[in-house]
Design a protein that fits this description.
The complex is a heterodimer. Chain A is α/β, with parallel strands linked by helices. Chain A contains 7 helices and 13 strands. In chain A, strands 2-1-3-4-13-12-11-8 form an 8-stranded mixed sheet, sandwiched between helices. Chain A has a 3-stranded mixed sheet with strand order 5-6-10, with no helix packed on it. In chain A, β1, α2 and β2 form a beta-alpha-beta unit. Chain B has an 8-stranded parallel β-barrel with strand order 1-3-4-5-6-9-10-11, surrounded by 8 helices. Chain B has one domain: TIM Barrel. In chain B, α3 links the parallel β4 and β5. Chain B starts with a strand and ends in a 9-residue tail after the last helix. Chain B contains 10 helices and 11 strands. The chains are: A alpha/beta, B alpha/beta. Chains A and B meet through α2, β7, β9 and α7 of A and α2 and α3 of B.
Amino acid sequence: MSVSETPERPLLAVLDYGIGNLHSAHKGFSHVGADTRLTADRGLIRDACGVVLPGVGAFGPCMRALRERGLDEVALDRIHAGIPFFGICIGMQMLFSGSAEAPQMDGLGVFPQLVRPLADTVKRPQIQWNKLDIHREHPMLTDLGDEAWVYFVHSYAPDAGEEVIATCDYGGPVTAAVARDNVWAAQFHPEKSGATGLRILSNFVAFASDSAKVAA
Amino acid sequence: MRAIRVIPCLDVDAGRVVKGVNFVDIRDAGDPIELAAAYDAQGADELVFLDITASSDQRDTTVQMARSVAEQVFIPFTIGGGIRTVDDARRLLMAGADKVSVMTAAIRRPILVSEISEEFGAQCCVVAIDARRVEGRDGAFEVYTHGGRTRTGIDALQWAAEVQRLGAGEILLTSMDTDGTKDGFDIPLTAAVTSAVDIPVIASGGVGTLQHLVEGVTQGGADAVLAASIFHFGEYTVADAKRVLAANNVTVRPPH
C-alpha cells in the first residue's frame, strides 16, 4: 500500500464528481502537506488513507452527480471500511439522510437527520465568518486557539443530533461540524477559513496518516 | 450572530495589481498573491479583485491569477470585471475564485444572473451595482455603467430587488457620487438598498476614515464594507478597521 511507503505525505482522495469548483479543498489539503488527488479513480480512492467529499452549490445537483458516477457507493464503501472521511459544505449535507432543498432525493444516510433551511429571521445564505461554539473536544477542533472563526456559505444546515461537535449562532444554533468514528464533516469551508481552516485540514491529514500507520 | 466583513479591493490589469499598493514592506507591489497574503495576515475577511484588463485576449491572465491566488491564499475572493457569459464565470470559478461579480453584462442581459446562479449556486453570484443620485428627486438613484459615466435609466432600488429575484447571492453597491471622495459612503443609498433586499449588501465608494466603515454598517445597514485606498496606502490596516468597528459594537471576526 503506497501510503505506508510515504507516511510523511499521506495520500488523500478528493472525490471528483464533476460539479463546480472542487479544487479549493484540493489546494488546501495540498498546502498542509498531503499528497492530494482530485479523482474518481476507484483504485486511487482505495489506496488513499483519507477521502474528502467536497461540495458547492445545491444539494440536488451534487447528489445526482455523485450518483451518476457511482461515487455514492464508493464513498459509503470507504466510510464502512473505517477510512478517515471528511465531508465539506454540501459534502457534509450529502452525508445526511436528505435535504429539504431536494426532498425527492435521498442522501447517503450516514447521519440520520435531515438538512433544513436556516431560520427565516436571518439573511440567507449565511455568507460570513462565524465563531464556532465547540460542544465537545474532537481531533478536528484541536489547536484552534481561544476563538475559532470560520467561513460559512450556505442556506441549509443539518438538524442537531448527538454527532454535533460544534455549532455557530445564526438565528439560533446552526450545526457547524459533526463527527462519528472515522467520519468528520463541516458545514463551513475550512479551505477558505485562513489559518484556522488550514489547522482543521492539517488535523484531518494527521488523523488520516495516523490511521494508516495503525492499519499498516 | 451577524459578523460584518471587511474587504479590501484590488484593481488588476493583465494579472497584476495596479494603482500603487504600498502599505507594507512588499517585494513586488504588483503581485496579487503577495498582497492577498498580506491582507489575509491583517485579518481581511475576503478580497475583491476588480479586473480592469481592457484587451480581451489578456483575460486568460486573470484566470491564471485566480488559480495562483487560490493555491496560496485561503480566504474567499471575488473576481469582477469583464464577465459576460456563464463560460467566463465558469473559467474563473474553476480556477479557484469563490465568487464572480457581474455588472454591465447583467444590465444588458439580466437572465445572466439566473444562469450563473443556477449553474454554480447563488452564493457565488455577486451583482455589482454602480449608482448615482437622481438630481432633483430625493431618495432616487440611477444605475450607471462605465465607471459612472454611462446612464442606464434603471432605478437602482428596483434593480437591486430584481437581481435578488433573478438569483443574485449578494450585491456589491458602489456610489459613484462618493467613490474617490473619501467623504464616506452614500448612507441614504446604502440604507435604501439594504432595506430593499434580503441578500447581503457590500457597501463601497467613498471610504476615507475608519468611522466611515462604522457608519456604513450602523446607518447604512451594510453586511460588509469594501475599501481600497485607505488600506493600500498604509493609512490603516484591516486590523485597525476591525478594532474601530468592534469598539462601536459592530461584531467582526477579531484580527489575529
